[in-house]
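[Primary structure, fold]
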Amino acid sequence: MNCSQKVIIYIKINVMIKIKLYTLLVVILFATTTFAQSGILDTSFGNNGIVLTDISPNANQGNAVSAQVDGKIVVAGYAGDAATYNMAVARYNTDGSLDTSFGDNGTLNFPVGSAKSIATGMEIQADGKIILGGYTDDNVSGDFALVRLNTDGTFDNTFGNNGIVIIDAGGNEVAKAMTILDNGKILLAGANDQNFSVARFNTDGTLDTTFGVNGWSIIIFEDNLSLVKDLTIQEDGKILLGGDGIIDTYGIAAARINADGTIDNTFGTNGKVRYSLSGIGNSTRFGGIAVQGDGKIFLGGWRGITTFYDEFLVLKLNTDGTLDSTYGYNGVVTAQIVLGYQMATTILLQSDGKLILAGYAEYQSEYFNIVMVRFNTDGNLDTTFGTDGKVSTDINGNSDFATAISLQTDNKILLTGFSGTSAQDETIFVARYENTILGTEDFQNMEFRLYPNPANEQITIELSDASSNYLVEIFDVLGKKVYTSEIQKSKSIDVSALAPGTYLVKINSENNTSIARFVKQ
């Protein structure tokens, strides 16, 4: 082979490499740009992203929402007249139409016991059966209640008494949150005589007497009235409880118990913490609890600034219950959607570490919109979400109140609650929003980790193979190389000077190439 032939072959190889790299860039960046903006309504669902459902001609409210593995959406809450509320359930197809194969043409409305009954929580088992958690109340005292439905909406007669369980602990009980454990047992939490309370049930609905004291764990906040409103499970099996703790004003309260129901004294003071961060005479209220994989804890809610103004609030706690000073301002971040009343009622921690608070805000006197805010991992508002990190939705000019949030398997956001003009003219709503979650392993083959993603100031790359030197290259949307350097084990790269947009990171060794993308904010 002569010199000219070698040059031609060399040129062809380089051209082919560049074409392949450019093609990969186009494919990845096209996938990036075709994602709908996070926080906008999904117009393929219902009527421009919203579905309204009246199960009763009077009040209707959704308190829990979840997507099944087949994409169908289930909402639970209550319906009826205020004196005779019944538990209510609706199931929707993926397009938002009622699933007529479920219940009575897509909905259910039934009493639990002789008192009014309200579903406040819901979980879908791995076999598709639906568990509702809530309470019954005769306006004097209440009891915890569970219901298990078959996949078609009929009562599961293998559970409790013909599908229904009512438990009286001897006081006045109200349940506000539930979850299913990995072993199928059920936790139902709320208050017993205004103390934090949790009950655990076996898979057949019987009370699990190996938990706490005869199936109950009751946590007393001295000199406080307290109510569990949300709970979550740590990776080690410990149970985190969050809610309101009231002395002279409301505060955010949290407790941690061991898997057996005993108090975890490694958390806070004797297993409990309470935070009140309001101005004089105002309240700090609880909206939801979430836990990271490293055990750090988020408490969401809102606080009063003055008599007429509120703001959304997130507290981040270390594993021992102290505030995490590396987050926001000494562990606290806030956001205002409007200059007025705003209340956060539900929380969602995404797989990428971003946190969503949802609730409602007043835009005119007695006129409220559904609202959401999303925070980046450092506590700053995520400007890729909605408008500058905030979303506000009005439904037909009514007052709208979000009560529960969840994600579909495709990461679209589901919100439920109620909309109406009065307490006896409320309709259940389900709203679905577009949402893109970029993971640290997005478009890569696990040869390296890249975080944070999206990024503002810098990215960090960690190699799975620390034995060799690698070449790291960053390309912009046009395929232009904007950065190159060697890396061994790990490297932090300053990206503050890069223009906002999507970039491709390529890691090269003699025998391997790995690629990932990241978004520069």
